[in-house]
Amino acid sequence: MNQSRSEPMLLSAEKAAEACQVLARAFQHDPLMVFVLPEERRRAVVLPGLFSMTVHYCLRYGQVYASPGLEGIACWLPPGETTPTLERLLSIGLRFSPLRVGLGGLWRIGLAERYAARQHALHTHGPHWYLWALGVDPPYQGQGIGSALLKVVFQQADARHLPCYLETQNPRNVGFYERHGFRVVSETPIPHGQGLRLWAMLREAPSTMPSSPSQS
Length: 216
What we know:
42% of the residues lie in helices and 18% in strands. The protein has 216 residues and is of the alpha+beta class. Strand 6 and strand 7 (197-203) form a beta hairpin. Helix 1 packs across helix 3.
């Protein structure tokens, strides 16, 4: 593996548009995005704008990490800031016209996001880190880039003994996250989601308890 790829950096605002393109390519065949935008060519055109909201929101209110060559992007929200608000979404400006998704797409994404928000509230109690989006450009997947993007925030979370939380609608992602310490806390169908499922996953905070003394 190229060692430089294992050292993520904070994304600069100047690179935001490129980051959105990377996430769009990474999520082109993701089940959630297929549900929201079923037509493949239209999905490829619309996704960069859709991800611009996530990227710019996290640039202002969270942390966005990128591999040095922008092969992978991770958008995190920190403790106390893990619930995106309409006021803050408006504060970053209109980065994307909702009309590009279409009325059907808006209904589907709203349905999925509301359900994800309920699961988020159900499975998190107290301060935690929230992984809003993680994507690696398809030609670079399997090279450790996603792992490095996780570990940079794990270090911050572990230093404060805080958990990390995420949702995924892609069963292929579950094993990857499990290998990095997440466990599935629920797997449920999304109502009216045409078979779409949601995996809520939690990486527990490291224990603050001292080890028990060994008994002789």
